[in-house]
Amino acid sequence: MSEIYRVGLYLRLSREDDDKNTLSESITNQKRLLLQYVKENNLSVYDIYIDDGFSGTNFNRPSFVRLLRDIELGKVNMVITKDMSRLGRDYIGTGNLIEKYFPEHNVRYIALTDNIDTFLDSVNNDIAPFKAIMNDMYAKDISKKIKSSLKAKMKEGKWVGGRAPFGYTKDPNDKNHLVIDSEKALVVRKIFALCLAGKSFYKIAKQLTDENIKPPAWYYDFAWKNNHLKYRKWQAKTIKDILTNQIYIGDMVQHRRSKVNYKVKKVIKNKESDYIIVKNTHEAIISKEIFWEAQKKIPQNKGRSDQKERHLLDGLLYCGDCKHHLSITPRRKKDNQCYTICNYYRTYLEQKLCTTHSNNYDKLEKELITSLTKLCLPYLNKDKIKNRVLTNIYRDNKINYKKELAKIKLDIKQINNNLDSIYLDKLKNNITNDQYRRLKEKLELELERKQKRYQTLNDINNDSKEKVIYEYIDLFCQMHNPSRELIISLIDRIEITASKKVNINVTFKV
Q1: Rounded to an integer, what distance in angstroms lies between the CA atom of residue 7 and that of residue 40?
Q2: Residues 280 and 369 occupy one common structural domain
Q3: Are residues 277 and 382 in the same domain?
Q4: Residue 251 above 80 pLDDT?
Q5: Are residues 46 and 97 in the same domain?
Q6: How far, in Å, are 126, 136, 137, 317, 502 from residue 133 at the CA level?
Q7: I want to staple 340 with a disulfide (CB 3.0 to 4.6 A). Which of 90, 297, 326, 495 is the partner?
Q8: What is the pLDDT of residues 282-327, one digit of tens each?
Q9: Is residue 148 part of a domain?
Q10: How far is residue 317's CA from residue 325's CA, in Å, rounded to a whole number?
Q11: C-beta separation of 122 from 430 below 8 A
Q12: Highest mean pLDDT among 124-128, 247-251, 274-278
């Protein structure tokens, strides 16, 4: 009895494809082609899944996710796309779908124009991984071209961001030009005035919140979150970002952040030297004199003195209830004492989201050192320390290194096999010389990267840490006057509850 197929037709068009203005790639034409194939082969369509405007390197597309859900529910057992690139342009993700996911769920996959059908024994199926690599290379090339185009516009002083900086809006007649938003500009001017009056970032944020002035988050598509506490409050970081942004004097400042690469959507902050600044591109909200005067004030507006006392347990104390940091207050003049306080309680004082967690810091430090000393007692024998502390600290990392080394070794072997395979395909004319060259370059670059990583891990794995650990042991056993560095090396975090219960998490197993 022949298999009864419940077909899911998957269609995708990215913004890059749309920019090419090619009818062959349009959603309409993809749909027409797939429906024609279904009709000619008497197949039953369960549903049509369309992702319009989504990159092929991103597999978290709404309709694609829905397709996978229907596959897992048993509603779809055949997937058809126009070609493999519609499924995805990341060769790892696409390969995983075709080689693992679809077979595991007994799903037949067909890419029409690539002549790929996973239920047939075909040479086209054999070279599918290489087509996936070529699709990936295309995505990388497109990413480079887009980045290059955006940078060129930035250098021309054109705004290319998704939304305008607070205080501005996009010119309705030219999306690459900024014009002043009068309502928000008043707030920006107020922030600079408060800064020149000597107020800190925190105090400016608090005043704006108290006056019920809408923060940037209120405007930026957070309508559904407006009732949430976070989006009704100004933050000190927001104030700092506004006060230090040269865009408010009419200079276009861009490329402050960038994505890691075309596959990873994580955004990282660039160095100031990498910023692209073009002067006098739009109307200023703040005069240059006021802006640069404010820059002189900013070091005094950080809200914390450079002469602040440094404590042994700075950064290690946490609230045992809300899990936020516990700060240590400056010493009081009347009794020369300082105390701990929960940051979450202090930030949201009026809302009473936590309690003070107030403890006399000096007494707390002595008690914690005593407790830590007791934890040391089982380790006073150096042989025990070697067997327990040294092993526990580095064993996990070494196991991970060895696992990764073994995996990379297999990867290197596989890449070499792939190089041999594509060479044979070239000799058999299964792929063109140009395809062979591009695949060879791709695989050789990957091979070089893997070999470097293998050497690095091998060096780390062979590196002995015993000398360093024994130095810690000697200091640890003395414990009369522990240094900040020693404490950090031994303590991960200290949690203190409102009931004064203390829990010390150390970096070694007890």
Answers
A1: 14
A2: no
A3: no
A4: yes
A5: yes
A6: 13, 5, 6, 49, 55
A7: 326
A8: 999 999 888 888 887 775 444 444 456 778 888 889 999 888 889 8
A9: no
A10: 6
A11: no
A12: 247-251
Q: Which of 110-114, 348-352, 383-387 has the lowest mean pLDDT?
A: 383-387
Question: Is the C-alpha dihedral spanning 289, 292, 295, 297 positive or negative?
Answer: negative
Answer yes or no: do 201 and 332 share one domain: no
List, in order, residues 6 or more apart from 133 with CB less than 8 Å away.
91, 439, 442
Euclidean distance between CA atoms 278 and 430, whole angstroms: 51
Residues 328 and 288 in one domain: no
**pLDDT tens digits, 473-499:** 555 555 556 767 667 767 788 999 999
Instruction: Give the predicted TM-score (pTM) of the model.
Output: 0.41
- Integer Cα distance of 468 and 489 in angstroms: 11
Judge whether residue 343 has pLDDT over 80.
Answer: yes
Strands of 249-402 (E only): list them: 252-254, 257-259, 267-269, 276-278, 317-319, 326-328, 340-342
Strands 267-269 and 276-278: unpaired
Task: Copy the structure tokens of residue 215.
Answer: 């923060």
Distance, in Å, from the CA atom of 267 to the CA atom of 162, rounded to the nearest integer, reads: 14
Same domain, 111 and 234: no
- The parent domain of residue 119 ranges over 6-142
Instruction: Write the CA distances from 302 to 1, 11, 37, 150, 243, integer angstroms.
Output: 76, 52, 66, 34, 12
- Beta strands 502-506; 78-81: pairing state: unpaired
Over residues 13-54, the pLDDT tens digits come to: 876 554 444 444 588 888 988 999 999 889 999 999 999 888
Buried residues in 402-432 as b, exposed as e (16+ CB within 10 A): eeebeebeebbeebeebeebbeebbeeebbe
What is the per-residue pLDDT for 462?
A: 56
Find out whether 381 and 262 touch, Cβ atoms under 8 Å. Answer: no
At position 150, the amino acid (one-letter code) is: L
How far apart are alpha carbons 28 and 121 in whole angstroms? 31
Task: For residue 249, give both structure tokens.
Answer: 């004097």
Residue in this structure with the two tokens 């056993």, named with its chain if needed = 477
Q: Which amino acid is at 112?
A: L
Alpha-carbon distances, residue 474 vs 388, 395, 481, 505 (angstroms): 15, 21, 12, 21
Q: How far is CA 288 from the centre of its chain?
A: 35
Q: How many residues does the chain have?
A: 510
The Cα–Cα gap between 302 and 202 comes to 8
Number of domains in the chain: 3
The Cα 413–Cα 411 span in angstroms is 5
Q: What is the pLDDT of residue 303?
A: 45
- How far, rounded to the nearest angstrom, does the alpha carbon of residue 372 sit from its chain's CA centroid? 36
DSSP state letters, 451-489: HHHHHHHHHHHH---HHHHHHHHHHHHH-SS--HHHHHH
Q: What is the pLDDT at residue 393?
A: 46
